[in-house]
């Protein structure tokens, strides 16, 4: 008897957990698109490279002159990434503003894509 | 490489050098494997193919075993056929060695037809974790 | 509860099928809610698998021998800890553990990435479900851990004595964790290739899983080596056995991967290489799992072959291999490199060279491992290549990796400043040269040139790492005006990946020095001794002081106390024993207690500079006559008792068994009262402890590198746009703004 009860409980929990997103009616989330995420990842990598270059200079691997050259290159690459990131973020905000105003859903979610808000902070 | 060479040409040269080194090393490894390797035979294969004074690796299951002070005598059975060969062995005997265990041992066939194990070559298969062992009675 | 367990496995399988379908449906239609549902199916799969695992473990702990695997792998006399762990000492139990671990790590990965990389996650999720579904299907269809027998036997077969070792109980879960963790970056690589998002994001989200896989596999390998050294009676920690190699190969590939991904993150290079490497590492993890349980290769570890499982595994491996090649070929245009190497002498080049060498090492190991099968396919005969034949390839490659692990940290990214380079090499090279001179003066090392080279290279690496820590601490001390100890802690804390990696390099160098020393300069001797006799090994005198014996319901033990002297000074006393367990198959009433499983307890004295290792191999031949007579007499008595009416039978049998036990104890005790010659294997090995110490240091370094950075330096949040008056819609590219993180966080 106990074992059947256990199976039923596990089955019920699994069904609830799995079906909850399909049955929820929450609003679409405001999570960043993959393009923005990719640019943020690129930004983070570039900033880390800048740090690493300074680290190399401070630990005596690079001369000041070589460091300035590399640092300048990295910073200009970082600026380009930041510009692209700004453009991507601005575009995304414009798209979401349009969605909120009731236009056709854009790439990245549907009206039924409603579970994510809740799922953002809870497994 | 000379300065001022086209970078793509430099890369092509580097790739060629790397591939050449790789091919040479691979060829050497293949040659070594076939020339320095030893045939791994079951009991039935050993009986049919073994030449005197040539070393082979015998693989099979121990079916009988007897120890004297200095020598271990045992028979190794073919995994698929009802053929076993006698081996006399002097050297380190692994702890797991027992009748019913799988073993690998390097042997040479003597002129008299006896298989002599090379000292230190006897290895025993570890206990079979994934083989169901028949549950024994308490007595 | 066995039926419940079986139903749970079926539910788990259904979960994987649903999750696979929902993920792909969500990906194809853009309805992300299905992907979310699929992710939750993975959480559910973990819950179901964990519940099934707990049911099974309870069966082991409570000695429920109606379960076939409990009857075959445990007994009432098996200690509690080993009963808990005996689950994964069986085929079906270990497959269930695989499913549980894979679903756990997958759940964690999917949870962490739930708001990221949306285009690739569904495909990664589907891949993980595919793999989980495969292993779950194995447990449902071919290797059911909940199979039962009726009536249940009164007693189980017990855990093989060789497996009753703490490290052997932890070794499988660590290896399985490594394999299953490796499948996370594998799945995300598949997702990246299918979705076309092949830049560095998939690496960034899964990098830690690759590092965790490396750590778990490495710890698992070391635990196996430690068990081999202390438990098996041959005195070694590595035999180049196919099953050992099965764990080594994915570990080597993972080592290459965690280095080469840095180049893709920084420079957008090696995209094809990284994708291929992680796909190969994931495939190799499955190959390793397959090798262990297939029995296709002769191995001292090989287990019973199951043709059905073999076919299933080979099919999965083929799908993974062919699919990987297809995907990389499909996306070859998008995998084009974004940059090229600026110079042959930069850290990127060193990493690339190290990668090539590690992959070459993996290929050599793979070739040697699978050569019996290859040769059988070509010549019709299995040919084995022993370690002496392939050592000339492995050792130089290993030496190259060690050298590069010392050179890489010295060389900066992108470009080298030559005067600085000469200065930076000065200290590590000096350490290496001093080591060389000292060793040449000590003498005896020139006979082993490869070992000598490893010592020198290892010292060079140690010198490099010490220099890096020193210079980094000094730089921070100057910048932040902190005392050196605090500066060191904060330096590591803010640069975990770098300094964790350096610590790993240090540990690996120490470990390889230990391996080179202990294998090249070991003194071993086999001796036949009676009590009071001595033998000399490497300047030590080993005296057989006295024999020992004991008998318990589980085993008979024969042992020896050995005193070790150097000159007239007493160095240590060790006690070695051999335990004989009753045979499960023999029917001899006395003989079966002397010809069953045997385990060795090594008499070990470990020191930083040398290990003294002694093992006894007792010979029970002197008892053969008494055993034979006992077999006849007790077999007769038992036969006569069995012929009695039931009312009297039990009483007579109990008396006979009691007498039998006394007889066996008396025989066992004869080893002490009438000792005979026993054979001993004695080894004196230098620097073995450095292997274990180096492994611990490397594992610690891996943990440091794995640990998330302190919160202020984490860059997880988006920066909101700040429209300016000019309407450009974004921030101006001002160097000062980029500079701020530098002032806050560097060094």
Structural overview:
The complex is a heterotrimer of chains A (123), B (139) and C (747). Chain A has helices at 2-23, 34-58, 64-100, 116-121. Chain A has 123 residues and is mainly alpha-helical. Chain A folds into two domains: 1-31 and 110-123, no CATH class; 34-107. Chain B has 139 residues and is α+β, with helices and mostly antiparallel strands. Chain B has two domains: 1-37; 40-124, Nucleic acid-binding proteins (OB fold (Dihydrolipoamide Acetyltransferase, E2P), Beta Barrel), CATH 2.40.50.140. Chain B has helices at residues 7-36, 43-49; strands spanning 38-41, 55-67, 72-77, 84-89, 102-109, 115-117, 123-124. The longest helix of chain B is centred in the first third of the chain and has 30 residues, at 7-36. Among the domains of chain C are: 1-153; 165-342; 523-690, no CATH class. In chain C, α2 packs parallel to α6, α5 (91-112) packs across α7 and α15 (449-480) packs across α16. The two termini of chain C are 58 Å apart. The model of chain C is unreliable at 713-747 (pLDDT under 50). Classes of the chains: A mainly alpha (123), B alpha+beta (139), C alpha+beta (747).
């Amino acid at each position: 008897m106990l074992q059947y009860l256990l199976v039923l409980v596990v089955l019920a929990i699994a069904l609830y957990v799995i079906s909850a997103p399909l049955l929820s009616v929450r609003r679409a989330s405001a999570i960043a698109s993959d393009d923005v995420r990719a640019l943020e990842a690129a930004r983070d990598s570039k900033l880390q490279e800048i740090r690493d270059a300074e680290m190399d200079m401070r630990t005596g691997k690079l001369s000041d002159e070589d460091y300035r050259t590399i640092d300048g290159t990295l910073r200009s690459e970082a600026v380009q990434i930041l510009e692209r990131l700004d453009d991507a973020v601005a575009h995304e905000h414009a798209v979401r503003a349009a969605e909120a105003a009731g236009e056709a859903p854009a790439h990245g979610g549907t009206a039924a894509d409603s579970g994510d808000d809740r799922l953002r902070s809870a497994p | 490489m000379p300065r001022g060479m086209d970078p793509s040409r430099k890369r092509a040269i580097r790739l060629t050098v790397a591939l050449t080194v790789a091919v040479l090393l691979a060829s050497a490894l293949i040659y070594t494997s076939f020339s320095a390797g030893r045939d791994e035979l079951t009991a039935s294969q050993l009986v049919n193919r073994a030449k005197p004074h040539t070393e082979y690796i015998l693989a099979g299951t121990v079916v009988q075993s007897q120890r004297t002070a200095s020598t271990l005598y045992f028979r190794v059975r073919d995994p698929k056929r009802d053929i076993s060969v006698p081996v006399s062995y002097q050297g380190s005997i692994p702890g797991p060695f027992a009748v019913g265990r799988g073993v690998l041992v390097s042997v040479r066939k003597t002129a008299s037809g006896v298989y002599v194990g090379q000292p230190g070559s006897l290895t025993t298969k570890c206990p079979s974790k994934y083989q169901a062992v028949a549950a024994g009675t308490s007595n | 509860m066995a039926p419940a367990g079986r139903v749970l496995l079926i539910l788990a399988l259904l979960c994987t099928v649903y999750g696979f379908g929902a993920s792909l449906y969500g990906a194809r239609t853009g309805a992300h809610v299905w992907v979310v549902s699929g992710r939750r199916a993975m959480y559910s799969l973990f819950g179901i698998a964990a519940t099934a695992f707990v049911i099974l473990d309870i069966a082991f702990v409570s000695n429920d021998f109606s379960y076939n695997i409990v009857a075959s792998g445990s007994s009432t006399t098996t200690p509690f800890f080993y009963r808990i762990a005996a689950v994964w000492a069986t085929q079906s139990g270990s497959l269930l553990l695989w499913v549980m671990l894979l679903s756990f790590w997958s759940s964690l990965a999917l949870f962490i990435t739930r708001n990221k990389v949306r285009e690739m996650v569904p495909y990664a999720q589907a891949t993980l479900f595919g793999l989980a579904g495969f292993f779950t299907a194995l447990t449902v269809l071919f290797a059911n851990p909940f199979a039962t027998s009726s009536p249940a036997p009164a007693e189980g077969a017990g855990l093989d004595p060789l497996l009753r070792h703490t490290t052997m109980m932890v070794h499988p879960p660590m290896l399985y964790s490594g394999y299953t963790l490796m499948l996370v970056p594998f799945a995300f690589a598949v997702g990246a290739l299918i979705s076309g998002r092949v830049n560095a994001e998939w690496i960034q989200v899964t990098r830690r899983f690759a590092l965790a896989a490396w750590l778990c596999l490495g710890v698992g390998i070391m635990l196996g080596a430690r068990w081999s050294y202390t438990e098996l009676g041959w005195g070694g920690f590595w035999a180049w056995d196919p099953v050992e190699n099965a764990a080594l190969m994915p570990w080597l590939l993972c080592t290459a991967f965690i280095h080469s991904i840095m180049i893709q993150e920084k420079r957008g290079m090696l995209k094809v290489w990284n994708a291929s490497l992680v796909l190969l590492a994931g495939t190799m993890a499955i190959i390793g799992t397959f090798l262990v349980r297939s029995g296709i290769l002769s191995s001292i570890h090989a287990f019973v072959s199951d043709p059905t499982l073999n076919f299933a595994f080979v099919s999965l491996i083929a799908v993974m291999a062919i699919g990987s090649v297809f995907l990389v070929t499909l996306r070859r245009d998008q995998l084009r490199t974004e940059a090229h190497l600026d110079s042959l002498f930069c850290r990127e080049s060193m990493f690339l060279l190290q990668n090539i060498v590690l992959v070459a090492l993996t290929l050599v190991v793979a070739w040697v491992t699978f050569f019996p099968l290859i040769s059988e396919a070509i010549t019709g005969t299995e040919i084995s290549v022993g370690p002496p034949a392939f050592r000339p390839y492995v050792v130089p490659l290993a030496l190259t990796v060690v050298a590069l692990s010392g050179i890489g940290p010295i060389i900066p990214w992108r470009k080298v400043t030559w005067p600085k380079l000469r200065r930076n090499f000065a200290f590590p090279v000096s350490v290496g040269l001093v080591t060389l001179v000292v060793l040449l003066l000590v003498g005896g090392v020139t006979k082993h040139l490869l070992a000598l080279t490893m010592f020198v290279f290892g010292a060079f690496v140690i010198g490099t790492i010490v220099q890096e820590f020193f210079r980094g601490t000094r730089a921070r001390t100057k910048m932040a005006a902190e005392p050196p100890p605090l500066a060191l802690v904060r330096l590591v804390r803010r640069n975990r990946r770098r300094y964790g990696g350096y610590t790993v390099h240090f540990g690996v160098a120490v470990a390889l020095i230990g391996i080179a020393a202990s294998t090249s300069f070991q003194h071993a001797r086999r001796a036949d001794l009676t009590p009071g006799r001595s033998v000399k090994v490497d300047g030590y005198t080993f005296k057989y002081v006295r024999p020992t014996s004991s008998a318990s319901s589980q085993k008979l033990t024969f042992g020896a106390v050995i005193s070790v002297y150097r000159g007239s000074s007493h160095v240590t006393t060790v006690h070695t024993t051999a335990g004989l367990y009753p045979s499960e198959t023999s029917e001899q009433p006395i003989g079966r207690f002397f010809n069953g499983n045997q385990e060795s307890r090594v008499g070990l004295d470990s020191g930083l500079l040398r290990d003294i290792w002694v093992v006894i191999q007792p010979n029970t031949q002197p008892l053969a006559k008494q055993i034979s007579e006992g077999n006849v007499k007790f077999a007769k008595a038992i036969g006569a008792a069995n012929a009695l009416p039931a009312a009297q039978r039990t009483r007579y049998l109990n008396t006979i068994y009691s007498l039998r036990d006394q007889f066996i104890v008396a025989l066992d005790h004869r080893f002490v009262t009438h000792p005979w010659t026993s054979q001993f294997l004695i080894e004196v090995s230098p620097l073995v402890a450095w292997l274990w110490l180096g492994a611990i240091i490397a594992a610690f370094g891996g943990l440091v590198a794995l640990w998330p950075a302190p919160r202020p330096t984490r860059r997880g949040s988006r920066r909101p746009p700040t429209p300016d008056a000019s309407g450009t819609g974004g921030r101006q590219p001002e160097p000062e703004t980029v500079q701020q993180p530098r002032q806050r966080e560097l060094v």
